[in-house]
Amino acid sequence: MSPKHVIFKKLSRDKSVGVYMAKRDFVDHCDSIDPVDGVVLIDPVQVKGKKVFVMLSCTFRYGRDDMDVMGVAFRRDIFLTTRQVYPELQDKERSIHTKMQEKLLRKLGDNAIPFFFEFPDNLPCSVCLQPAPSDVGKRCAVEFEVKAFCAENQDEKIEKRSSVRLAIRKIQYAPEDSKTIPSSEITCEFLMSDKPLHMQVSLEKETHYHGEPIKVSVYINNSSSRSLKDITVAVEQVTNVVLYSNDKYVRAVALEETSDTVPPGTTLKNVYTLIPLLAANKERRGIALDGKLKHEDTCLASSSIVKEEVLKEVQGMLVSYKVVVSFCHTYSHFCECIFCSSEVAVEVPFRLMHPKPEPG
């Protein structure tokens, strides 16, 4: 995350406008969202009598800006709001919302103007899909940015040399963990077997943090006549691209393939430990990542928390995680001359998120 006490600054090429912000990560607390605030520094000589606007946008991108197939753009604005900051439409003192703005205004002088935006309640968090090494252009992503520009009016085409863009992120931290222990179980009855097979899979808690080991407890009571083998334990990331195509990406981001077996009439009780990390999934296409700022590292995407009464379609991409425990069971057929095999799996959903930082 962005370090404390750092001012992020970016100027347009013609030096007419510049944006100063104290942070680039804005937290969705579910019941409230951090507002976006900062200061715009203008050069009245370079502005040349034009107006200065500040824009906050949330964009879903699923292709390069220069790609346009049969009139279909490869990006969509989920949210867009623009405000005029110069000439000022209200007294500067009334536009100040934070102490950091006050400090920046004192330091930058009379040509510095504060700006302030509030996120609507229904926007997604920053997330992107990792491209393959051979992919070119911009990745599929939900992106946020603050943009300042000079223009006669806000609807005219913006000149790049007179505008400046600063990427920001909207993030969520893990909510208070419930006391519920996630678990799932299955009972299988097989043909030509008098007794069933029972498997139970459980986790220690519902919410795990990035980089934290996930302990998967597996209990199998094999009362059947089948032999179980090749037990596999995986953490799967499921990404639904819901805005335009309902694409679905399912990727195992942590995997343990064992040679454990459970012969007929026996039990198995074991704990497997997995750690889903981006480091083990570099360059794999379709892995969802937390939104990335330039020159900063990121990690696997956090689980999406969709608020009640919010349409999932406007979320762009929804990310979830589950533990999947599977095994093959073998049996003989036609007087034990042919051996057949099939797979059984149990799934346990959970959340993967960042812990809430300590206050202060």
Short description:
The protein is mainly beta and 360 residues long. Helices cover 4% and strands 48% of the residues.
Describe the structure.
- The chain is 4% helix and 48% strand.
- It has 360 residues and is mainly beta.
- Strand 6 and strand 7 (72-73) form a beta hairpin.
SSE order: EEEEHEEEEHEEEEEEEEEEEEEE
Q: What is the arithmetic mean of pLDDT?
A: 85
- Please provide the count of β strands: 22
Q: Count up the helices.
A: 2
Choose one word for the global shape: elongated
List unreliable stretches of 5+ residues: 332-341
Mind sketching the topology for me?
Layout: E1 8-11, E2 17-21, E3 25-27, E4 36-42, H1 44-47, E5 51-61, E6 68-69, E7 72-73, E8 75-86, H2 99-108, E9 112-117, E10 127-129, E11 141-151, E12 163-171, E13 183-188, E14 197-203, E15 207-209, E16 214-222, E17 227-241, E18 247-257, E19 266-274, E20 288-290, E21 317-333, E22 338-353
Parallel strand pairs: 3-12, 15-22
Antiparallel strand pairs: 1-2, 2-4, 4-9, 5-8, 5-11, 6-7, 10-11, 10-20, 11-12, 13-14, 14-16, 16-19, 17-18, 17-21, 21-22
